[in-house]
User: Fold this.
Amino acid sequence: MLWRLDIILLLFLVATALGVYVTKDLMAASIIFSAYSLTMAIVWQQLSAPDLALTEAAVGAGVTTVLFLITISKTVRRED
Amino acid sequence: MIVQKLGANFNYVIATLLFCIGLFTVITKPNLIKKFMGLNIMEASVFLFIVSVGAVREGSAPIVVKGMEKGVQFVNPLPQALILTGIVVAVSTTALALALMIKLYEQCGTLDADELKGMEE
Amino acid sequence: MRKFLIFLCLAICWVVFLSAVVEMPPFGDPANITNRHVVPRYLEEGVEEGGASNIVTGIILNYRGYDTMGEVTVIFTALAGVLAVLKREDVKTSTTMVATSPVGPSLIVTTVVKLLIPFIVLFAVYTILHGDVSPGGGFQGGAVFGASMIHYTLIFGLLTYMRKIRLAVKVPLESAAILSFAIAGFIGLFFGQKFLTFLMPALSHEAQYLLRHAMLLLIEVGIGVATGIIFGSIFASLEKVERI
Assistant:
């Protein structure tokens, strides 16, 4: 049962990575990137690495996204 | 046969696929911020690969609790210890790159790699 | 056209990767070569030798202490780079995006953040201090601490952050991780052992273990505080807007 959850999570990782590639709006892309990081945190919980899950949830979904958002708000929002 | 083996190693398949998607983003997108998101995706995929190498099915997290019976199957703690510092370092490098981008935008007024290339002269 | 060629190259790359993946040992098998080399010793002796029930913490601080010291230096250097490129925020010359934006944060957001921040910080402190018996440790707790500070600054503005955490407090704390490593390392030299040795045979059995516990806790707290403060400083210097 949990084994199937793993597969769904991994496929969702691919979907979010493609979403980051496709999205033209950088603000939306960084939010999708934070979803990628959060999914990665759950994958690490599934791989029995609670330390990594904690760090990734705080760093990937919290710090990196905010840094990207700040940079975007100071520079350009549209990609092209 | 091959499909069965790939199915058993599904984590590695996804990790390599994510690596390729990230590399594709880095190469084809002109925007520097987008390039860096691609680089972060690549980083995370490598982390996923290394942690998956040490994973054990039905293994428990490597925390020894007093009174635990002997012979419990733990997962491999070594890749986790290596990746833990890696995640934090990845954020610091991202922060440095974003600081450089803000400075670049102040100086040149664009974050497009192709336009920046034309500005070299 | 160029995009298509790159796509083709990467697709071929992926096929090469897949042919390597087929040859990899099966996922999740305890008998894999990676799980047989040094890891059995870490798992069996790790609690005794490393000094922490959480074996990941034991490996990070004890077996691979030099490695972690290098990583801590990398984070510190990244902060130095950010501060060299963009200046540090200053009460006199910098203002904040919250102050310059026409719409302030809504009442709901400010109230929720104000209520939640103490609990997040409490969780970070718990994670740092209990790193040896439960999931957690310096890097994890520090990341949570830094994230809480960043979100506080994001809602209440840079000026509040500068008033809460003053420069005279911030600058010494940013180097706390490297300093704690240096102090713990030189304790070993003091007893005639190598740098970053945790067990001193010169002491009695109990004093030895007590000293090791104290050193591990010192490094853990140092890493946690420094990581959090460094994330906060990086964010503050990225976010500041020069007042015209």
User: Anything to note?
Assistant: Chain B is about 70% helix and 0% strand. The radius of gyration of chain B is 20 Å. Chain B has a mean pLDDT of 88. Helices of chain B lie at 2-8, 10-28, 32-53, 77-108, 113-118.
